[in-house]
Amino acid sequence: MSIWKRPGQDTWSYDFTVRGHRYSGNTGATSKREAERTEARLKEDARAQARKQAGQSALGLTIGAAVSRYWLETGQHHANADSTLTDLAWLERHFGKTRLLASITNQDVAAMVASRRADKVAPATVNRTATARLRAVMTRARDLWDEPVPRITWKNHMLREPQEVIRELTADEETTLFDALAPGYRELARFSLLSGCRMAECLDLEWRHIDWHGEYIVITGKGDKTRHVPLSAALRALLWPLPRAHARVFTHVIRRSSANHRRGDVAPVEEEALNSHFARVCKKAKVIGFRFHDLRHTFATRFLRATGDMRALQLILGHSSIETTMRYAHVTAADAKRRMDAMSAAAITTETSTGSSTGGSKHMK
């Protein structure tokens, strides 16, 4: 308790902070125990007043208020802010705006997961858009907003995610695919293939993020984490000739007029248009079962095959854990097996050849 006696006084004073506001004064109590009780009561009154000013009930923060505050403080600044807003809106609809955050139990979280699964989305999507998002809101409420948040065993609510299939672009597929991609989209896809960057990271790339002299590119990825991707000779050759018509690097020429653009305008490549164009081109080029994200997988497998440096790959891809990068270990394992098979085949050929030669000599004798 933050209480003390001022020099020359018989009563105890208090000094505490609630949500950034400082409260201080005299408790009027002469005993320490009574002063502590008075301070506790004053602190609770201050919290209640703060909740009232924030539009909360006396029992705590509502889902609606929590979601709005989370969005204003951090959600709107996420790299994929639109996705964050969609997830928060879903949580608000599911629980209801007036539901108290403090009333959410493990049973409620389990019911939420079941409801999200009923939308027929993948386990990874449930984990990311519902469970992890609610956890982020409740953790912030507990740690930063001084809210009475219940204890949730989050690990028990995370669905098991099937291991992602690593799809690598073959040389023939690469030629066919890139020949079919339209200008603007082609350069963006090539950048992903040469850097291992995710779609959102490519779309958000701005010229100011490229340090031509330091030879690196500043990439902001998942969780707003920043990393430096080396500006390789191939990336420099790709990026340097591109027009500086916009703050964002990857642009295309508008072919049809719309409410936002006229025909012939230069505009940044947008996610929805990229997804649509890429899927259409893959189908036309007969590159089956290939997604834009597989360009990142292709970069990773090629890098690991060429260098074998798992740690460097982790840093380039921006993985927080080496275990995530280890998904690509199958590349070196498969290459090692091929080399062993080739060695064995060569040894068998040599033995057969030697045996035949020896046998022939004995026959001649």
From TrEMBL:
Instruction: List the Pfam families.
Output: Phage_integrase
Statement: the UniProt record of this protein carries the keyword DNA-binding: yes
For this UniProt record, give its keywords in alphabetical order, as a comma-separated list. DNA integration, DNA recombination, DNA-binding
Q: Does the keyword DNA-binding apply?
A: yes
Q: Which positions fall inside the Tyr recombinase domain?
A: 164-341
**Family as reported in the entry's similarity comment:** Belongs to the 'phage' integrase family.
What protein is this chain from? Tyrosine-type recombinase/integrase
